[in-house]
UniProtKB/TrEMBL annotation:
InterPro entries: C-type_lectin-like, C-type_lectin-like/link_sf, C-type_lectin/snaclec_domain, C-type_lectin_CS, CTDL_fold. PANTHER family: MANNOSE, PHOSPHOLIPASE, LECTIN RECEPTOR RELATED. SUPFAM superfamilies: C-type lectin-like. The lineage of its organism: Eukaryota, Metazoa, Ecdysozoa, Nematoda, Chromadorea. Residues 1-17 form the signal peptide. Pfam families: Lectin_C (PF00059). The keyword Cell wall biogenesis/degradation does not apply. Keywords: Disulfide bond, Signal. Gene3D superfamilies: Mannose-Binding Protein A, subunit A. This is C-type lectin domain-containing protein. Residues 28-143, 188-308 form the C-type lectin domain. It comes from Acrobeloides nanus.
Amino acid sequence: MLLIFTLISFLISAVLCTCPTGTELGGASGLCYKPFPIRSTWYQGESTCVQNGGHLASERDVFTAAFLVGLADFPFNHTDFWLGGTTNFLGGMWSWPDFTNLTYINWAGGQPNNSLGYCLMQRAGDGKWISVDCTQQKPFICEYPQVQQQTCTCPTTPPCASTQPATQPSQNPCPNNNWVYSNNDDFSKCYYFNTSAINWNDSLVACQNLYNGATLVTIHSSAENDLITNVFRSKYPIPTASDSYYYWIWIGLRLIDPVNVVYQWVDNTALDYTNWGDNSPSGYTCVHFDPTLQDNGPYGQWIDAYCDYTDIGFTSNLGFICELQL
Ligand SMILES: *[C@@H]1O[C@H](CO)[C@@H](O)[C@H](O)[C@H]1NC(C)=O
Ligand SMILES: *[C@@H]1O[C@H](CO)[C@@H](O)[C@H](O)[C@H]1NC(C)=O
Ligand SMILES: *[C@@H]1O[C@H](CO)[C@@H](O)[C@H](O)[C@H]1NC(C)=O
Ligand SMILES: *[C@@H]1O[C@H](CO)[C@@H](O)[C@H](O)[C@H]1NC(C)=O
Ligand SMILES: *[C@@H]1O[C@H](CO)[C@@H](O)[C@H](O)[C@H]1NC(C)=O
């Protein structure tokens, strides 16, 4: 009787962790995985995973590698697929989406290419890793932490955090993991993305208050413009054309001389690169960035317009990107 009572109270107080519906537990990692047989860029894949509380899968040991290759084989019909490795988050150095180094290594011969814009593809046949352009279209596997079962009645039990061993600290030198680090020949900076809708002035103040020395982002090369576009598109769901203005984001460029239509970065650095969209600049005061626009040109064009969209009847304002020079 006592034994049964003890057993029952143990069951009641046990943390009941389980994989989210539709995902499969990978024994070695303690994480949950789901293959998505939809050909997508790495950025779209990561965005899909993030929308559901996960990331593209990380492979930290040979058992997880074998498990994922097996999991993908049938749904992907022996097609190569994306994992979460990328050079984009640590500026030309490979990391998983949580900024940690690749510790277990499974590159094919001659790999990888460390250029920005390369992502980690797993070959279907032998499971070897190949670095390929992140904009290629491939199926992908998302990884999710286990969740606490709805039926659990014990508020004092710890949450079902990932049971994955913390093998190494994050490599991110930024103030915290809300910032993305990038370092290459052109720039060494941390970027902070926020889609809260505020006006340009308030965005500048928000950046300055976020961390000593931080400001609204300044962009000095096409590599930097691409990086910001791509990271934004991997962090946030890709909107449909009709709601794309929700994804316009302030950058630190504004008009300082209306007569001669001169724009200047908030940190007074040179305007040595521009990526104006059609009809811009036309003398409006504040500049935003469009990570979605592709109809009239590439992603990430700059548009000069109002400094506060509520002034012209919009119900919401824009998000913003801050930078911190290291
Ligand atoms: C899988 O690929 C093979 C070879 O390309 C093809 O013949 C077959 O129809 C594909 N099966 C499915 C379910 O897509
Ligand atoms: C991660 O990789 C970088 C570059 O190879 C190296 O400098 C750093 O020490 C590594 N960090 C860990 C924790 O292994
Ligand atoms: C790596 O990729 C870059 C950019 O596409 C390319 O210029 C370079 O030649 C590649 N390097 C190797 C070794 O393939
Ligand atoms: C985004 O910025 C707004 C306005 O400064 C702030 O209230 C909010 O906490 C920020 N969100 C995150 C996730 O940092
Ligand atoms: C932004 O601040 C400037 C002064 O710093 C002010 O002249 C301007 O009216 C403000 N704009 C908005 C939209 O608040």
